[in-house]
Design a protein that fits this description.
By secondary structure, the chain is an alpha+beta fold. An 8-stranded mixed beta sheet has the order 14-13-17-18-11-12-16-15, with no helix packed on it. An 8-stranded parallel barrel has the order 26-29-32-33-34-35-36-37, surrounded by 4 helices. A 7-stranded antiparallel beta sheet has the order 19-20-23-22-21-24-25, with no helix packed on it. 19% of the residues lie in helices and 26% in strands. The chain is built from 18 helices and 46 strands. Strand 15 and strand 16 form a beta hairpin. The chain starts with 9 loop residues before the first helix and ends with a strand.
Length: 856
């Protein structure tokens, strides 16, 4: 057989080469307007099913009405897209920068690579190749060739071919490896990967040095530089436990960057956040383990900087943010070098953390977005929608001094923790306001600037610290909602360390298990270090008391366990919990779901109890509070969900609504459209009460205590203030429910019986009583408090009536003879008795629960 690899379908391939040579520099010969941008797209696998080009204005001004462009034609190259640049941008700058991502099947699960941008200097026709980040201004060669070579082990090189090869044709004798100086490297074996026949694994007879530059040649198919691949996960070679970023002291700033695959690295200094004034470029030097470093022996406080790397694969790189930047200055700005000690509020250190308990079971967590909390005029705040709005401690509803708002409301309500929706710098234009939840993180060590009083200075750092201190002073711990599962457009990772920080498929495309961006490769040693370093930074520098992990399923379990260890070493009572699911098909072998975290102490949102209480998050179906269904699922949740997934109740975070999907009030209206507002209010109070008496932690969506509505908008991540903001008039209008939730919180905090910490305690103390129920949908349970530290009740009973009728319950069961007191009944809840009774039965109103205990 000829020593050149034989390819399947060789006649088709030869025909495509002939066609390509006859139309070099043209899309398909079809006419297009001189003002039209033509984007030609080729895939080696020939798969164009549902092909589309998602587009946007790269200057973040105006997008066209339809952002997905469909192919205008099939061509000999592949497919051709036609775009009118004038549809992007505003009147003073149209078509100056257009962003785009190819995808298949009209789905983000099949997106091709990361963000790319066209600018007019590229000309009106460009060419793309699937899974190749380069934009070509002349038609590239798409004939079969060696596309890439990666160093995947100390003796393993993988050759990536553009087309599948015949297994019998893959021979070691066809492969040549050589150093940059031309010295040959002996090849021991070559074999195709069975499941992916365009990958050829080459085993060498000796160890390869990752610091050396190599080339790989496949006879008849060309040569490629060998770039670092899976060998990057070798901790002995590519891990350094040292601080990274711009390490400031008044005498010296040390710049340190992890940059695998780099042939050179630079830090560029600037005088200002924007512009080129004072620009000075300094070379970083390698100091081992792919760390690059340089130092400047002067006080750089207030200066700005960027990093740039040159890599073997892409040559000279573009300037990018430092991934460890602590003070960004807007998406168009250079990060600021900041003396963090100078940003501490008076009395900030040593950090005085609130005394609230020591486990998730003791926590009552209230979720809120920075802007939503005070932006409405009804908040009475001066710094509306800002970090500083949280520091105004005595605000009230204008004209109603008896209605506390803002932080005064949280203190009055009695919550132990505020969970702040992501306060990290997000991908946005900070120079103008555009509402967003903030789940597209751009910088993982710097606060978002849009909530500060000045985006170009250190105000974001100072003012977020003031927010934390104000909450701590009010006795409220602070939890940050963190998004380490994916990265945002324009992130620095692919610029500075291409191929390291993201999970990639064998074909070179990115995994997108979040549905919103490229998955972060948390299992890589320096990526894991990055996440752990970030969490430790927020605990030490800002005094944060815990973390809620967005799409925790995409963060590998070992990383989650290391985060928990490191954070608790700094603050033993820190809370670590998250969403135990993903947003799509994941590029991780095993997601960090509820089954895998069992026994680790890591907490998770109890979606099983959530859905049992109210039905699915978006559908018209109901749950226990609407119609009494799913009773057994509610019972399991009340008992700490140990029959389902927890090892003990300390892992279950019980809730009925959060920022995602409909608010509880909207869901009840959607699923019980014929119910009156008064009936829905009873359902809402019952939902809160079930969470309050369930074993585990209790999470409240901010505003749910006052019937918060978003006018049925399910995903309000970029809706305006009229949808998202807290209208503090709700508190006055629904004062009865606010007081009810306040009473439930006080009762739960006063009685450890609702906060048992071990599976053994729950099984020994909590008992359900299913005999003699007035209706089979009802639930009755007791908790034995005898000998329980801090518990003043020897016994308590909870009677739950989800029906639309008042029902009479026999009092439990010979255990509560004599006088009993009611602490929750009808629409009231209190730590003091609401009433006493000597009868052997109790009438429980419709859609409510009662909590009773012996004695006065």
């Amino acid at each position: 057989m000829n020593r050149t690899i034989a390819f399947r379908g060789i006649i088709t391939v030869l025909l495509s080469i002939l066609l390509a040579s006859s139309s070099q520099g043209q899309g398909d010969g079809g006419a297009a307007s001189a003002s039209t941008l033509i984007i030609n797209y080729h895939r080696f696998d020939g798969d164009y099913q549902g092909a589309g080009l998602w587009t946007w204005d790269g200057r973040e001004q105006r997008n066209p009405a339809n952002q997905e462009v469909l192919p205008a034609a099939e061509t000999d190259y592949g497919v051709r897209f036609e775009i009118d640049p004038a549809a992007y941008g505003n009147d003073d700058a149209r078509g100056e920068r257009i962003g785009f991502i190819p995808r298949l099947r009209h789905s983000w699960d099949y997106k091709d690579g990361s963000d790319r941008y066209w600018t007019p200097d590229m000309g009106n026709e460009i060419w793309l190749i699937g899974n190749d980040p380069q934009i070509y201004t002349t038609r590239p060669d798409t004939s079969p060739h060696l596309a890439k070579a990666t160093l995947d082990g100390r003796r393993l090189v993988t050759l990536v071919l553009t087309h599948p090869a015949e297994a019998a044709s893959a021979k070691a004798s066809l492969v040549t490896l050589a150093t940059e100086s031309g010295q040959a490297v002996p090849v021991a074996e070559a074999a195709l990967v069975a499941a992916t026949p365009n990958l050829l694994e080459v085993t060498t007879a000796q160890d390869l040095d990752p610091a050396e530059s190599y080339t790989a040649t496949l006879e008849g198919l060309g040569t490629a530089a060998v770039v670092l691949g899976r060998i990057l996960d070798d901790r002995d070679l590519f891990y350094a436990d040292m601080p990274l970023g711009a390490l400031y002291t008044p005498e010296r700033t040390t710049f340190r960057l992890f940059a695998p695959n780099a042939t050179a690295a630079h830090v560029i200094l600037y005088d200002n956040a924007t512009g080129n004034e004072g620009r000075a470029e300094l070379a970083l030097q390698p100091i081992g383990h792919n760390i690059w470093e340089a130092g400047v022996d002067e006080d750089l406080q207030g200066r700005h900087y960027m990093f740039r790397t040159d890599t073997r694969l892409f040559g000279r790189g573009r300037e990018a943010w430092d991934p460890y930047a602590v003070n960004t200055t807007g998406n168009d700005g250079h990060p600021r070098i900041t003396d963090l000690r100078a940003t501490d509020p008076e009395g900030f250190r040593p950090i005085q953390r609130p005394q609230w308990g020591n486990s998730l079971a003791d926590a009552i967590i209230y979720e809120m977005h920075v802007r939503d909390f005070t932006v409405d005029a009804s908040s009475g705040a001066v710094n509306r929608g800002k970090y500083l709005g949280f520091t105004e401690t005595n605000t009230h509803l204008p004209g109603h001094p008896e209605i506390a708002t803002g932080i005064a409301h949280l203190k009055e309500l009695g919550v132990t923790h505020l969970q702040l929706m992501p306060p990290f710098d997000a991908h946005n234009d900070e120079s103008k306001f555009g509402y967003n939840w903030g789940y597209m993180t751009a910088a993982f060590f710097s606060p978002e600037g849009i909530y500060s009083t000045d985006i170009r200075t250190d105000a974001r750092v100072r003012e977020l610290k003031q927010l934390v201190k104000a909450l701590h002073d009010a006795g409220i711990a602070v939890i940050f909602d963190v998004v380490y599962n994916h990265t945002s457009p324009g992130n620095p990772f692919e610029e500075l360390a291409p191929g390291y920080y993201h999970r990639m498929k064998e074909d070179g495309s990115f995994w997108n298990g979040s549905g919103t961006g490229n998955e972060f490769r948390s299992e890589a040693p320096m990526a894991r270090k990055f996440i752990v370093d970030s969490c430790k930074f927020w605990v030490e520098e800002y005094g944060v008391d815990g973390f809620r992990f967005d799409l925790m399923g995409l963060v590998d379990l070992e990383t989650m366990k290391e985060i928990q260890r490191e954070v608790k070493a700094l603050y033993p009572n820190a809370l670590v919990y998250g969403e135990p699911w993903t947003g799509g098909q994941a590029g991780i072998a095993q997601i960090t779901d509820k089954n895998r975290i069992k026994g680790t102490g890591i907490g998770a949102f109890n979606d099983a109890l959530r859905d049992a209480i109210k039905g699915s998050t978006r559908g018209t179906d109901g749950g226990y509070v609407q119609n009494g269904s799913r009773r057994d699922d509610v019972k399991r949740g009340i008992a700490g969900s140990m029959e389902l997934w927890t090892s003990d109740p300390l892992q279950a975070l019980n809730y009925v609504s959060a920022h995602d999907d409909m608010t509880l009030w909207d869901k009840l209206a959607h699923s019980a459209p014929t119910a009156t507002p008064a009936e829905r209010a009873r359902m809402q109070r019952l939902a809160h009460a079930i969470c309050a008496v369930s074993q585990g932690g209790w999470f409240l969506h901010g505003g749910a205590e006052m019937m918060r509505t978003k006018d049925m908008v399910e995903n309000s991540y970029n809706a305006d203030d009229s949808i998202n903001s807290i209208d503090w008039n709700w508190k006055r209008e629904h004062r009865e429910t606010v007081e009810y939730v306040k009473g439930l919180i006080a009762l739960r905090k006063a009685h450890p019986a609702f906060r048992l910490e071990t599976a053994g305690e729950v099984r020994a103390r909590l008992a359900f009583h299913d005999a003699a129920l007035p209706d089979p949908r009802c639930i009755v349970f007791t908790i034995n408090g005898e000998g329980l530290a801090g518990e003043s009740w020897n016994r308590l009973a909870v009677l739950v009536n989800p029906t639309e009728e008042d029902l009479t319950f026999p009092l439990p069961f010979g255990e509560m003879e004599g006088e009993v007191s009611l602490y929750v009944h009808d629409t009231a809840a209190s730590v003091s008795p609401l009433a006493t009774a000597k009868a052997m039965e109790l009438r429980v109103p419709a859609r409510s629960l009662s909590v009773i205990a012996p004695g006065k």
